Amino acid sequence: MAERGIGIGLIGLGTIGTGVVKVLQRNAAVIEQRLGFPLRVVRVADLDTETDRGVDLSSVRFDSDADGLIADPDVSIVIELIGGYDIAKRYTLAAIAAGKHVVTANKALLALHGAEIFGAAQRAGVDVGFEASVAGGIPILRSIREGLVANRIESLHGIMNGTTNYVLTQMESTGEAQEVVVKRAQDLGYAEADPTFDLEGVDAAHKLTLLAAMAFGAELTFKEIPTEGISGLAPVDFEAADEFGYRIKLLGIAKSHVDAGGAERIEARVHPTLIPKSSLLASVDGAMNAVAVTGDAVGPTLFYGAGAGELPTASAVVADLVEIAREIDRGGAGRVAPLSYLPDALRPVPLVPLGEISGRAYLRFTALDRAGVLGHIAGALGEHGIGIESVIQKGRGGEGDSVPVLVLTHPAQESALRAALERIDALPDVTAPTRLVRIEEGL
Length: 443
Ligand code: HSE
Prior knowledge:
The protein has 14 helices and 17 strands. By secondary structure, the chain is of the alpha/beta class.
């Protein structure tokens, strides 16, 4: 080390990268008091070297040479904050091959290529920190990995996408259509220019893949997690949910199911969910995130905070830097397995098929406002053993008009619900596909 401290190279000086530089500069003294030596950003690489980010880079080598940064002997930890798959993967693997520790916020990369990246890091004897990849500033990964290490994790429920939580909260409070709210979220900088991954639940599914590995030691493939986004929800769904006593949240849900013979299966899914207004997760509004984790010893726990944004996400990146710096200082790496379970203990675990999942459901039928329609719907549900708990019909249609009919069912198996909906959607009085939103109780 030419100077006292540990040298850091940052690839990607966007919002989060700039936040990392700010936090390291602003809190340099307190970090050194905790660590015993400074963390020094020695190199930054970004294709855009012109834009003024409002941070002092006078003592830093700043250019577009990411490969040079990785090879630089003064760089011990490489932070990858460019996002995406291909180039991020190449730099991450190159850094590991060069014997550098890596810190990343890239959940998409890890959800798809985690096994390869963690395997390479283990063989090279370096660490990969990724606290910032799930729920931004909330230290949820470190909490599962260390704070809850004594527990067999039973379940986790997370609001892990700030964009969708902002959109749902706004739709509920203003009654506006989704497109209007998404546009506002983009104007305010909450939503990406292309928010498809957020709105369709893909971002939350990436995060759930990582959480499920850490909570259950389950090697899940991101693509096998049933994922539904929020795009089909309409203002009437929020009014009806409110009348039924619920709020609508995009949840990532994972639960361990162990049968009498000890065989384990994992239930994992991402979808809009009605949750009771009295649940703690129901009061998580706007762009905030929260993850509820239940362990067999600790019982229910709840972690809340900003899931995105410059400084909250930088807070998580810097926490990883400090942890890795401590390891370097002690002359080691890999004190704690990155996915909480030792690599040999991670194993493929079968998923519970969605059809087997049981619970109450909210159904929005769109039907002609004619006498007898409700009877046909109730009859088809009854034939599949599905009871109705409550019904609301919104508005009065004229001759030939369709109206929404909102139904809360008694607990039913998803396969029975799907079969009933197939029947109902083929009825001549039903004019649009029925929207099903699952209900999660006991949160
Ligand atoms: N796009 C993500 C969200 C932020 O809206 O929560 C980072 O994961």
